[in-house]
């Protein structure tokens, strides 16, 4: 509601295109969580800081999938602290897929842009203003964070993890030629209607889901911009990359290779 | 056309060109002996070259993968800041 009203801009505000854009646009951050009691307050604090400093209109939608560790209780406290217009709680009963979490969150999003990111502090909100700048610069449908270009990078990865990551990325680039350098990353900005359309089309899960989003985006001729990001591996809690992940990644890759 | 189909087309095209040239004599196509000697093991050379290129590229990219020490440090200080500020605002961790 609010966003459709805001987009009917007043003529006099056209004098200041930068300011107009900032006033009109609203950015909804979707934060799917599962057992992120430690990280959630910190990521929310960093988000609020980043948005406030750059004077950006925002809302944070927390989709907790029935975490047993009390993530929801912490989220309720945050809602009280920052206000229910900024922090929206849209929990679900049990752990369901990431795709459905985005669909669920988007139903309640009032922004015209959606930002998706991990709640485990591996994605730093300081990059969001850069995403927004990039989006404006090229009028992109999607802006994706990339660990593989420019000043992008990772922290806390050993040699084995780096080899797997770079190797998987190389094979994917050769086979799919997707037009974006970081396919498995999940720090991205989408136009709302673009994300809606893409989620409808995507069927896969896990790492492959993010990859499929970009591949489908290319099929639908959406434009993609990229911003280098530093990925700091989970500060609290465990990071997971086992044999199972690699196998399901390869399966997903070959499925996309054969079907798109 | 799927990516798989594109690859198959590409490989089929290359493969048939190679086959036609190596089997030239039977098709009435006469290439000089030196040419045929080079042509015959070409796919093997190509495979090795592609393999080397892949290993080289991945190796180079692993070696130049940025370690974001600074970002990790910055995050740690911000976490301390955030905790203090949130506690002031009345958050019970």
What is the structure about, briefly put?
Chain B: Pathway: Protein modification; protein glycosylation. By secondary structure, chain A is α/β, with parallel strands linked by helices.
Written account of the structure:
The complex is a heterodimer of chains A (260) and B (93). Chain A is of the alpha/beta class. In chain A, helix 9 (206-219) runs parallel beside helix 10. Chain A has helices at 2-7, 17-24, 39-53, 71-82, 98-107, 128-138, 159-176, 192-201, 206-219, 243-259, and strands at residues 27-33, 58-64, 87-89, 113-116, 142-146, 153-155, 188-191, 224-228, 230-232. In chain A, helix 3 links the parallel strand 1 and strand 2. Chain B has 93 residues and is mostly helical. Chain B has a domain at 3-66. In chain B, 6% of the residues are buried. At the A-B interface, helix 3, helix 4, strand 6, helix 7 and strand 9 of A face helix 1, helix 3 and helix 4 of B.
Topology:
The complex is a heterodimer of chains A (260) and B (93).
Chain A: H1 2-7, H2 17-24, E1 27-33, H3 39-53, E2 58-64, H4 71-82, E3 87-89, H5 98-107, E4 113-116, H6 128-138, E5 142-146, E6 153-155, H7 159-176, E7 188-191, H8 192-201, H9 206-219, E8 224-228, E9 230-232, H10 243-259
Parallel strand pairs in A: 1-2, 1-4, 2-3, 5-8, 6-9
Antiparallel strand pairs in A: 4-7, 5-7
Helix pairs in contact in A: 9-10
Chain B: H1 3-22, H2 33-39, H3 42-63, H4 69-88
Counting copies of identical and different chains, the oligomeric state is heterodimer
- How much helicity do the residues of chain A have? 40-55%
Give the CATH architecture of chain A: Alpha-Beta Complex
The number of helices of chain A is 10
Given the C-alpha coordinates, what overall shape of chain A results? globular
The largest beta-sheet of chain A arranges its strands as 3-2-1-4-7-5-8
Distance between the termini of chain A: 36 Å
Task: Assign an overall shape of chain B.
Answer: rod-shaped
Keywords (chain A): Endoplasmic reticulum, Glycosyltransferase, Magnesium, Manganese, Metal-binding, Transferase
InterPro entries (chain A): DPM1-like, Glyco_trans_2-like, Nucleotide-diphossugar_trans
Subcellular location (chain A): Endoplasmic reticulum
EC number (chain A): 2.4.1.83
């Amino acid at each position: 509601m609010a966003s459709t009203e805001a987009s009917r801009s007043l003529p006099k505000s056209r004098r200041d295109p930068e300011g107009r854009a900032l006033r009109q646009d609203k950015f909804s951050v979707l934060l799917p969580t599962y057992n992120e009691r430690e990280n959630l307050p910190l990521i929310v604090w960093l988000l609020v800081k980043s948005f406030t400093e750059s004077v950006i209109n925002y809302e944070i939608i927390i989709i907790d999938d029935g975490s047993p560790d009390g993530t929801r209780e912490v989220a309720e406290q945050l809602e009280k602290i920052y206000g229910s217009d900024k922090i929206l709680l849209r929990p679900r009963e049990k752990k369901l897929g990431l795709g459905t979490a985005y669909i669920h969150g988007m139903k309640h999003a009032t922004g015209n842009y959606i930002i998706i990111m991990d709640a485990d502090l591996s994605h730093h909100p300081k990059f969001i203003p850069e995403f927004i700048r990039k989006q404006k610069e090229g009028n992109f449908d999607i802006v994706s964070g990339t660990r593989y270009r420019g000043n992008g990078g990772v922290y806390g990865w050993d040699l084995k993890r780096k080899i797997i990551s770079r190797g998987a990325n190389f094979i994917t680039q050769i086979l799919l030629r997707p037009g974006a350098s970081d396919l498995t990353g999940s720090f991205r900005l989408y136009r709302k209607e673009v994300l809606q359309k893409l989620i409808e089309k995507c069927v896969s899960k896990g790492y492959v889901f993010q990859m499929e989003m970009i591949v489908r985006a290319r099929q639908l001729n959406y434009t993609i911009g990229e911003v280098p990001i530093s990925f700091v591996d989970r500060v609290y809690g465990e990071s997971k990359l086992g044999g199972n992940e690699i196998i399901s990644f390869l399966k997903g890759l070959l499925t996309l290779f054969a079907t798109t | 056309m799927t990516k798989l189909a594109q690859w198959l087309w590409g490989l089929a095209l290359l493969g048939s060109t190679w086959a036609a040239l190596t089997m030239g004599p039977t098709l009435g196509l006469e290439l000089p002996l030196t040419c045929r000697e080079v042509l015959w093991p070409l796919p093997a050379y190509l495979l090795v070259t592609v393999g080397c290129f892949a290993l080289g590229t991945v190796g180079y990219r692993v070696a130049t993968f940025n370690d974001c020490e600074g970002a990790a440090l910055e995050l740690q200080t911000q976490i301390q800041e955030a905790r203090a500020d949130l506690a002031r605002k009345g958050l019970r961790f």
